[in-house]
């Protein structure tokens, strides 16, 4: 199976991190593309043309990132998933919120690189991310003890924010997330999938 992805995408990184955590990293071939410059190819395997897209050996495709993660867990380590889903709806809601935060970050970046930069639009989107992080900081009780798609998603999203918006202080307003992340980023799965400089 082959993961069509970009090495900077927080959505793709969560799939790559999960693959290492499931100990199937070596079975996942990686094909790096730039989604907006690879439409002819991407559209043949995913009509939406986004990464990550997982192409299976039989030629079929699976997307988006959460569906790919569910597929990898169900196929290679169903127990891994079950143990980590005590409250299924809370778990899915957290995953959705992390997706929305990455979506908001993408929108904010697009607004900021416009000429002239669309600061108000960016601020509106960045507000969603800050509210999301504040919510996590204050209510995700089990963050420090958990290894799940949620913690993998948070690690990938937080690192992506640190990289994409270095001018924003993500650290001091969220000390608990920062402390947790400073440990989490040392996991082999995170180190092997670091965002390229
Ligand atoms: N919900 C999707 C989002 C994926 C996504 O937005 N990927 C970006 C790269 S980070 C992309 O492919 N953008 C190209 C486009 O918007 O057409 C997922 O979780 O996989």
Percent range for β-strand residues: 5-15%
Described by strand count, sense and barrel closure, the largest sheet is: 4 strands, mixed
| Small molecules in complex | glutathione
Tell me how many strands there are: 4
Radius of gyration over C-alpha positions, nearest whole angstrom? 17 Å
Q: What is the H-and-E element order? A: EHEHEEHHHHHHH
Q: What is the overall number of helices?
A: 9
Q: What structural class is derived from the secondary structure elements? A: alpha+beta
The domain tally reads 2
Helix content: 55-70%
Residue-averaged pLDDT: 95
- For this structure, what is the CATH class of the largest domain? Mainly Alpha
User: If classified by CATH, what would the architecture of the largest domain be?
Assistant: Up-down Bundle
| Overall outline | globular
Give the termini separation. 27 Å
Low-confidence stretches: none
CATH topology of the largest domain: Glutathione S-transferase Yfyf (Class Pi), Chain A, domain 2
Strand order of the largest sheet: 2-1-3-4
Description:
With 197 residues, this protein is α+β, with helices and mostly antiparallel strands. The radius of gyration is 17 Å and the shape is globular. The model has no long low-confidence stretch (mean pLDDT 95). The protein has a 4-stranded mixed sheet. Helices cover 57% and strands 7% of the residues. The chain is built from 9 helices and 4 strands, in the order E-H-E-H-E-E-H-H-H-H-H-H-H. The longest helix is centred in the middle third of the chain and has 25 residues, at 88-112. Helix 1 (10-21) links the parallel strand 1 (2-5) and strand 2 (29-32). It has 2 domains: 2-80, 3-Layer(aba) Sandwich (Glutaredoxin); 84-187, Glutathione S-transferase Yfyf (Class Pi), Chain A, domain 2, CATH 1.20.1050. The structure holds glutathione.
